[in-house]
Amino acid sequence: MHARLDHLVIAAASLAEGVAWCEATLGVTPGPGGAHPLMGTHNRLLNVASDAFPAAYLEIIAIEPGKRPSRAGTHRWFDLDDGALQAGLAQHGPRLIHFVARVPDAHAALHALAHDEHAHIDRGQLLEASRDTPAGRLEWQIAVRDDGQRLFYGALPTLIQWGPVHPTDAMPASGLSMRALRATHPRAADLSAALATIGMADMAVDAGPPNLVAVLDTPRGPVTLESQGL
User: Looking at the chain, which terminus has fewer C-beta neighbours within 10 angstroms, N or C?
Assistant: First the structure.
């Protein structure tokens, strides 16, 4: 099993707020994204690939006004329906809340998490999704729980398996590059074990309050993004 960072998830109360945050915080304007009818969300994207994190990107995501998930009776991904998260975004603005890891075999990764003696984690069921872009049709499978929970306060990644086309294939360089990704959590040993199960044993995890930390090199120098337990 070998998982790699696919993308960072920045949640915003609205996509316009997310774009403004990106320009103010990272010094660049995000590129185009699209809509996710399955979840009632939409996004904007930025390439943040580096030698250490190839094919990585940053996603700014928000609930699309007036849209409901087409999956009746379930919650949106990444805890976006959570009242506390929504209140935090409304009060403090957009924030890093999660990350997604790509795997070569999502079924095997989910099985490993569910049945490993140190994990026993329900990461959710695999959903098939697609979106047409000017560069071609994006197709992917992604694991989403019916309750929409991120798990470990966002420090255990959502798992994704892409089809033949990856979003970064058509993304121009943004001037941003990923430098580091680490986490702290009160159950650091449990989180480390779960990460090792999916092949991310090299991600640094320390004991402490829940926090996901990403460091990006930007035109303004290094910028540190933190979830601070959201």
Answer: N
